[in-house]
Structure formats: C-alpha cells, structure tokens
Amino acid sequence: MKLKISSSFVCQQCGYDSPQWLGRCPECGEWNSLKEFKINKSKSKIGSSSDRVLIPKKINEVKFSSKMRLETGFSEVDTVTGGGIVDGSATLLAGDPGIGKSTLLLQIALSIAKNNSVLYVSGEESEDQIAGRISRVFKGKQNNLLILNANNVDEIVSIAEEKKPKFLIIDSIQTMESEKL
User: Fold this and answer.
1) Are residues 91 and 147 both part of a single domain?
2) The domain containing residue 16 runs over which residues?
3) Are 37 and 9 spatial neighbours (Cβ–Cβ below 8 Å)?
4) Contact assessment for residue 177 and residue 151, using Cβ atoms and an 8 Å cutoff
5) Of the residues 46, 71, 98, 123, which has the maximum number of CB atoms within 10 A of its CB?
6) Residue 117: band (very low, low, confident or very high) from pLDDT cuts 50, 70, 90
7) Are residues 127 and 89 in the same domain?
8) What are phi and psi of 40, to 5 degrees?
9) In whole angstroms, what is the distance from residue 87 CA to residue 49 CA?
10) What are the strands of the beta sheet with 34-43, ordered from one edge?
11) Residue 58 domain-assigned (yes or no)
12) How far apart are CA 172 and CA 151, in angstroms?
C-alpha cells in the first residue's frame, strides 16, 4: 500500500472544497476563508491479500443485536432518534441560527445528567454564558454536567478520555478545529 499526500483547501464559512488555494471562495464569496488540509490517500492493488472478500448474506443469517439507547427525556427527540440515542453514535442537530438548538441541547444535557455524566463543549459561548442559560432553563443543582469552552478537537478528545462522560455534546461543530487534520 502506498500513501499519497495531497492538499485540500476548505472554506471555513461554507465548507466549499477546492484542490488549490483561492483568495475568494467561489461558493459564498468570502475572502481569505480557505484553509489548507493535508490528506493521506492510500492506494492498494485490487486483489491484494489485504482485500476483504465481500459475500452477501441472507437476512435470516444476519445476527441482530438491539443496541442500548439513552433516552433524552424529550419524547419528540427520542422518537426522531428511534427511541433514544444509541451508545457510541453521533447525531447532528441542524437548523437556522437562533431557533434554539443550543437551548435544546442544554435541556437534553441537563435531563441526561440526572443519571449520567455529560460533557457539554461550546465553541461559541463562554462558560459564564452557558451557566447563565442553564440558570434560566433549569432550577436546581446538577453535579453530573461538565461544561467547557473550547474549539480544539484534540484537547476536547483528551479531556473526554480523562473524564469519560456517558454523553458528549459539541456546540457547534463548525467552530471546531484540529491540528491533525
């Protein structure tokens, strides 16, 4: 297997991807918003010993294991996620600015934190702002909820590995950066 390293330039405003640097994003028109990312591409020969043999199975041969789901405490959210959030899964909550995504995420975090540890990471709001929002939304003390203002993915992963929360919220994903990407 050979590794080929190439670059991709991604607009930090709209996500437009270009093989070369451009001063102005052709998608959103923002100036100097393209950031370089190194990409490792692997090339393998077809038919090599490392290739996996794909064999279709009959549906009755497939072993199905029901995954444990973490209920959010909000019936609408639990319904949309198929009965709760699957352990180890990633769920993206999207919508227009100002419609209440962060408030809903905090309410879900507070509900789950009643019985589980939760790490709420905000790349946009300070810990004071988060605490203020919590005091408006929730009355009472919550010891299982950890809040963090950060946008470095590598640092967040390190903290999550140390604290081992049952539930991790990143608000919002477009504010996150990693030196490894």
Assistant:
1) yes
2) 2-43
3) yes
4) yes
5) 123
6) very high
7) yes
8) -95, 120
9) 34
10) 17-18, 2-11, 34-43
11) no
12) 9
The helix or strand, by DSSP H or E, that contains position 63, with its residue range, turns out to be none
Tokens of 104: 């809903």
Dihedrals phi, psi of 146, to nearest 5 degrees: -105, 135
What lies within 8 Å, CB to CB, of 107 at 6+ separation is: 74, 137, 138
How many domains is the chain partitioned into structurally? Answer: 2
Reported as type and span, the H/E element at residue 171 is strand 167-171
Residues 140 and 101 grouped into a single domain: yes
Residue whose entry in the numeric block shows the structure tokens 């004071």 = 128
What is the distance between the alpha carbons of residues 179 and 99, in angstroms, rounded to a whole number? 31
Sign of the torsion angle spanned by Cα atoms 56, 60, 65, 69 = positive
Residues 89 and 38 in one domain: no
pTM over 0.85: no
Residues 152, 103: one domain? yes
Determine the residue type at 34: L
Q: Would the CA dihedral through 157, 159, 165, 169 be positive or negative?
A: negative
pLDDT in tens, 63-90: 877 678 889 989 999 999 888 998 888 9
